[in-house]
Amino acid sequence: MSVLQRRKLIASSILLCLICTLVSGCNRYRLTVNERSVFEPAPLFKDHRIADQALAQCVEQAIIDQQVTRPAQLSKLSCSHAGLISLEGITVFTGLIRINLKGNSIIGIKPLLFLPRLESVNLEDNPSLNCQDAALLEEQLSGELLKPKHCRQIK
After folding, report:
1. Any bridge partners for residue 145, and if so which?
2. Cα separation of 17 and 9, whole Å?
3. CATH (residue range 53-151)
4. Which residues have a Cβ under 8 Å from the Cβ of 121 and sit 6 or more positions away?
5. How confident is the model over 115-134, as pLDDT tens digits?
6. Residue 4's pLDDT is what?
């Protein structure tokens, strides 16, 4: 291979790396050439049905913060002291790993039992929480479960 061919190969490799870096760094931006769209980022996920308005607002903010385009991408949810009552509708977010529900008025947590990747849950300061549901979740959870005071003695 001649020196000229090597230089061309190196220049081509550098150009290819530069293009890949540019495209990967712009994955949230719409890319146009001559006013024609050549790339549009996926829209944020919106197709969820959550009845509890406080939970819906918390989920919406988490979707924006984490740039979630598919429900399984949502991995963390922090809804402490948010006025939550119900968790119905949360099961669509199968990628949830950590969830903070401290300081709410949640009664039933059965929807959490259907989140396969869940590792860490904070349920402290939920005075109306059903302790049997908390015990079921504790058996299923591989990580940490922080229960309300009234559920800590119950096994």
Report:
1. 121
2. 12
3. 3.80.10.10
4. 98, 99, 100, 101, 112, 137, 141, 144, 145, 146
5. 999 999 999 999 999 999 99
6. 78
